[in-house]
């Protein structure tokens, strides 16, 4: 997988102190994106899942955020790393320009597996016309913070 950067001690990419992994490549190319250098799939450094897990766990973190670029564009490679980080006890957030329903209903098997691993998903493309700097952890009003474990529990209890 291609990784642009691993940043430690973020307080803006999810709740708590987090390590953020920025993946290379993004099909969305949102107008006004704050990270357009992440669009190119050929940028960054190659990592195996084990190398990425080791790099993240070197820090003193209990939280990790998968960002980009688009983590779900590399889901086949990202999923094993995210699953290992989750097994290590980390809280896992992910940003995506896809909407949750699109991934859950029409995503690849790897994208669906990655969804199952994540605790919190911030979904939806960045929309410059809906920019709102007062929102926590989001850039535009259309984006949602979805607590996937809570959502799944609510869906099961409603059946």
TrEMBL record:
Essential cofactor(s): [4Fe-4S] cluster
Domain (Radical SAM core) ranges: 12-159
One Pfam short name: Fer4_12
PROSITE patterns: RADICAL_SAM
GO molecular function: 4 iron, 4 sulfur cluster binding; [formate-C-acetyltransferase]-activating enzyme activity; metal ion binding; ribonucleoside-diphosphate reductase activity, thioredoxin disulfide as acceptor
Its EC number(s): 1.97.1.-
EC class of the enzyme, as a word: oxidoreductase
Keyword field contains S-adenosyl-L-methionine: yes
Gene3D superfamilies per the UniProt record, alphabetical: Aldolase class I (3.20.20.70)
Keywords: 4Fe-4S, Iron, Iron-sulfur, Metal-binding, Oxidoreductase, S-adenosyl-L-methionine
PANTHER family: ANAEROBIC RIBONUCLEOSIDE-TRIPHOSPHATE REDUCTASE-ACTIVATING PROTEIN, PYRUVATE FORMATE-LYASE-ACTIVATING ENZYME
Main function: Activation of anaerobic ribonucleoside-triphosphate reductase under anaerobic conditions by generation of an organic free radical, using S-adenosylmethionine and reduced flavodoxin as cosubstrates to produce 5'-deoxy-adenosine.
Family to which this protein belongs: Belongs to the organic radical-activating enzymes family.
Protein name: Anaerobic ribonucleoside-triphosphate reductase-activating protein
Source organism of this protein record: Salisediminibacterium halotolerans
């Amino acid at each position: 997988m291609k990784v642009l950067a691993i940043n430690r001690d973020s307080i803006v990419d999810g709740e708590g102190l987090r390590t953020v992994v920025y993946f290379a490549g993004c099909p969305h190319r949102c107008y006004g994106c704050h990270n357009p250098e992440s669009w190119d799939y050929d940028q960054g450094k190659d990592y195996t899942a084990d190398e990425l897990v080791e790099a993240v766990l070197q820090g003193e973190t209990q939280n990790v955020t998968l960002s980009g670029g688009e983590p779900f564009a590399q889901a086949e490679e990202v999923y094993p790393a995210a699953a290992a980080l989750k097994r290590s006890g980390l809280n896992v957030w992910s940003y995506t320009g896809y909407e949750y329903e699109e991934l859950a209903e029409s995503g690849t098997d790897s994208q669906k597996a990655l969804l199952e691993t994540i605790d919190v998903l911030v979904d939806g493309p960045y929309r410059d016309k809906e920019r709102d700097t007062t929102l926590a952890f989001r850039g535009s009003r259309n984006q949602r913070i979805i607590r996937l474990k809570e959502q799944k529990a609510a869906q099961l209890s409603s059946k």
